[in-house]
Predict the 3D structure of the following.
Amino acid sequence: MKRYLFKDSWKRWLAGCFDAVGSVLFFPFRRLRHPLDLATVRKILVIRLDHIGDVVMSRPAIRALHKKFPHAEIDFLVTEDIAPLFESSRELHKVITAKHGWFLRKSSFIEKFSEFWRLVGLLKSGSYDVGIDLRGDIRNILLMFLAGTRYTIGYGITGGGFLLNENVSYDRNLHQIWLNLGLLSSFFVAQDNKLLPFEYSAERAQQFWKKIQTLPPTTLLPRVMVHMGSGYPSKRWPLENFKALIQKIDQEALAQIVLIGTEAEKDASPDLKIRSERLIDLRGKTDLSDLPVLLDVCDMFIGNDSGPAHIAAAQGAEVILLASGTNDIRIWHPWTERLHILQHAVPCSPCEAEICPVEGHPCVEEITVDQAFDAFSSVLSRLQKKS
């Protein structure tokens, strides 16, 4: 197992040099550190400046912290586009938003640098007893250190481990849910890995149904949410396959299809040429925070490995995942027992590439429409037996 999780050797070398020098310079200070007194913990900072799915999978760890420290204030640092998902969370005291996440492509280096120092000042005023970086990112570790967080925990897998009070060993074979919970081992928390639904107010739901007047809250047919987009092109099942699958389901009048996605994703396939009252196109009409409300009236989710798939898992929907070979799906899959993964095995997986370098993109393009329809039919049959 490699110590640093970088694909490029020069990055591993740079992280190693940083840690070697830092470990020597900070050695005297490490000896002065005091052990954590759990009885004195009053303010906790949790950081996950990451993609939607990664943030969703942090929730069991947050719940475990809340159970262990019911009287402590837990603040959660996430990017501003994801923050509304947690607006009704009873486990959090405050959601702190970052304007320019480290992985936001449209942000420049100057914007990210400026945002980093803004966050340092903001977190410093929080006077946190404990800081936990769930990702293992040197930028987050530096944030906690510079903000004066008294006791810090994380994975030093990109460098900066010497700055942590607890540099926890990282197991690359564990699912992200278990990795997040593993950071809390010194707190002796209950290892409850269940992913509970996102909470929202009745007013939030009413606002959604008022906004989306084309979609009735109930239907006699099973309701299936379909998401054709994803963060990376390498994770996308072909649009023509999605179209063929939707047509097949609609022709047999098996379900009501609800399309979701961003405006940009809609622009990529503006007209599916499917004229049916059973197809509701909400692409570009919903916010991320609308998805829990919408998913609570859906029976099934069909889509690529993406953030909405993880939210669907949290809300208890059956999830049919069209998984590419980009990531190791064993450790990144949506956390639910109602998961049905369709994937074509390839020797180059996991490649972690944003754009597939292999001609024909076999890991997703070899997943056939018939396979997806068979998975849909199997889940539908099980749903009908329950009803």
Notes: The mean pLDDT is 92. The domain at 207-386 is CATH 3.40.50.2000 (Rossmann fold). The chain has two domains: 9-187, 207-386. The CA atoms of residues 148 and 309 lie 37 Å apart.
